[in-house]
Model the fold of this input.
Amino acid sequence: MATDIVDKELQALRKARWETAFADTPIQDPSLSSDDCKATIVIEHLIQASDVSHTMQHWHIYKTWNEKFFMECYAAYEAGRADFDPSKNWYKGEIGFFDFYVIPLAKKLDSCGVFGVSSHEYLNYAQSNRDEWAREGEGIVKEYLAKYEEMAKQQQSSSSSDHNDIA
Done:
């Protein structure tokens, strides 16, 4: 899948294709046009960026979508559809995600100039969100958990009153 960021082999292949397309020396294979290779790899990276675009926007947008994803993952854990509690590693996981995926991706998009002057803006947002998460993320994860627990209580109480109405 074009947005599969967990597959290490696919990630290595993408990295190698980027390095080939944007190498200082021309592509040696006469069947490949340098422009075609660049266009293909840029489109592939744009698809990658679209999947994580919330990380390269204003803090409140990043935080909103991060919370939605956390809630989805935590609900799956609570329902027995996930093997591990995401809250245990969410804070550190986001820092790693920024450091090893989002920021390098934003740097590539900035370096090829695909978004013009906006490319640097996306990189700045990614770096700023990473820094803000490093400062505030541990407390935010606690807030997410408290919000989840409150929503679960409300849902439980709502379903209890529904059963009472039926009886």
